[in-house]
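Internal tracking record. Fields below are filled automatically when a chain is submitted to the structure queue. Please do not edit lines marked as system-generated. If the sequence contains nonstandard residues, flag them in the REMARKS field before resubmitting.
Queue: standard
Priority: normal
Entity type: single polypeptide chain
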Amino acid sequence: MCSRSRSRRRPYAIGKYFTCPNEEADHTVYNVVFNREDQYSIWPAVREPPAGWRSAGVSGTKQECLAHQASLDRHAGPKPAQ
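SYSTEM-GENERATED OUTPUT FOLLOWS
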C-alpha cells in the first residue's frame, strides 16, 4: 500500500497500474482474487477477501500478482450478459 508521508508523494503509473516510490520496501504477500463477474484484483494474504471475492489460488509479491492479473486480463474476453 502507498502510505502517506509528509512529502505527500503521489503514486505514478507503470503501465496501467499505479505504484508508489516506496514499493521496493513492500514485503507484503498478496493473493490474486476474483469476483463472480470474473474481475481480478489483488488483496493482502493476511486478510480475508471482501464479500463476493474469492482467492484464485495465486499468491506472491505485489509485482508477481499484478503480472499474473495482467496475463489474465489479456487472455480474457468479454463475459456474455446474463
